[in-house]
Each structure stands twice: as C-alpha cells, then as structure tokens.
Fold this protein.
Amino acid sequence: MDKADLPRPVAQGDAARGLAVVNQVGCAACHSIPDVAWPRGRSASDLAGFGARPMIAGRLPNQPDVLIRWLIDAPSLDPQTAMPPMPLSHDQARDVAAYLYSLDDD
Ligand code: HEC
C-alpha cells in the first residue's frame, strides 16, 4: 500500500483516550509500545510504526473496521492467532485504533 494513503482516520477515535485504554488493559504485557515505558512485552510484535503497516498480523488489511474487530476479538478473524480477545467496548477499541494509527514509521 502506498504511504500516501496514510494516516487512516478513525471516525471519532481519540488517540489519547486510546493510549489510556492500552495501559488499562495491559497490551504492553505482550507488545512493545512506544508510549508505554513498562512493561515492554516481547511475545508479540513491537507496535512502533504500526500505522504505516499495510497489513494486520501480515494477513488482514490494515483498515479501521478490521482493526477494531481485531482488537476486540482477533480469533474471530483468525482462529489460529495467539492474540487473545481483549475486554474492550467498541468505543474503547475505536480509540485504541486511533492511537495505533498515530504510530508512524519514525
Ligand atoms: C496475551 C498477549 C497479547 C495481548 C495482551 C495483546 N496482544 Fe496484540 N497480539 C498478540 C499476538 C501473539 C499477536 C500476533 C498475532 C498473529 O500474528 O496472529 C498480536 C497482534 C497484534 C496486532 C497486529 C500487529 C502487527 O504487527 O500487525 C496489533 C495491532 C495488536 N496485537 C494490538 C494489540 C493491542 C492494542 C492490545 C491491547 C488492547 C493487544 N494487542 C493485546 C498478543 C497479544
């Protein structure tokens, strides 16, 4: 995908609220996340630069609606995935998606 397509706006998503949710539910237990000093989990991918990636987990299109569903219930998109369902409301997942899309390639 062309970088000119980025960033992907998430309707009504609030990146600052999304970061708070990321801290609250503990995404960093598995993922290294630029704005989370600790923990820096290493069992899943580093989310730095995620906003510039064309795919989610290398196999799903990195689009807001897909990402929101992934965050809430990744196994519903891929039964083989090791990413567990997360206890997020749709609004929380939307804010987390806005936060993740703020992570560009630097
Ligand atoms: C128990 C560990 C664990 C937790 C907690 C977790 N994830 Fe994941 N996550 C994974 C794994 C493992 C993958 C890789 C999935 C795959 O490749 O099938 C993944 C994949 C992802 C991806 C795709 C990454 C990429 O490189 O394309 C994103 C985005 C993501 N997780 C975000 C989150 C967010 C945000 C949270 C918190 C709401 C979270 N994850 C919580 C384990 C976790």
